[in-house]
Amino acid sequence: MNEGGWHRLNDELKIVATVMKKELILYFRYPVWVLFDALMPLLWVVSLVIYGMALVGSPYSDNLARLANTGDYVSFTVVGMVVSSFAYSTLWGMSYAMRGEQWSGTLETTFLTPCSRFSVLLGKAFSNMLTTSAWVIIQITLVALVFGLRINIVNLPLALLFFLIALPSFIGIGFSLAGIVLDFKEHSAFVNFLSSLLGLLLPISYPLSVLPPILRYFSYLLPPTYAIEGMRSLLIMNSSLSELTSLVVPLIFFDVFWLFTGIAIFIREERRVLKKGTLGYY
Questions:
Q1: How many domains are there within the chain?
Q2: What is the pLDDT of residue 82?
Q3: What dihedral do alpha carbons 107, 110, 115, 121 form, nearest 10°?
Q4: Which residue range(s) make up the domain with 176?
Q5: pLDDT tens digits, residue range 168-179?
Q6: Taking the CB of residue 41, how many other CB atoms lie within 10 A of it?
Q7: Helix, strand or coil, per DSSP, at residue 86
Q8: Does a structural domain hold residue 281?
């Protein structure tokens, strides 16, 4: 990369950091939303844990051990919740990114600036991931204190590495959703539907093997499925990264596919909106 390319990259990274800072300032200006984001996932995972314990009579399930190679229902559910929280964060955050600018009346101004749209989107996505990380740490701590949590701390760096492998596919899906919302001007109904669908298809609180074959097929088309399965294997089942080739290879494929597809969809929708002259429409 020549000197001009490095300067350009440095400028775009500064834009990402600036957008992150702006989003965090706006986020913490609304303490009710902060409280909501901190409590809702915790209530969600606690309800799942209590429901599972009520069905099997203890935190350990022999049936789960037979189906998923671990009977620790609490740890099984918490790891699924952690990965899905980041998936939902990307889904909501990036789909809301351009819609939020429309609500604020700053979308046209943003499009007039000489910066990449994707730098703006990445700044918004990373700010969401940062706050999600904070809430996830708090939630895991509370669940561990109340119910007990048995995970392999030694494999935590490998689990983080595995998550980083999955992250580009999440971002690529976010790019595509941001483009669609930019054109159709609505994100709530669409993303609510996708969130409910993911709640059904992703193995958050139950193993994939209990899904009907047709639903299991669709689940295998979703990158978060592989992320959840991989992080469970590392943190609960003490697997090594080399044992997860069957999960890493599909994730790398999804990374490439969704990054290119997401960028292409966003560019297409942006051009379509500019051609129709509806960028400033609410």
A1: 1
A2: 85
A3: -40
A4: 3-276
A5: 999 999 898 888
A6: 21
A7: helix
A8: no
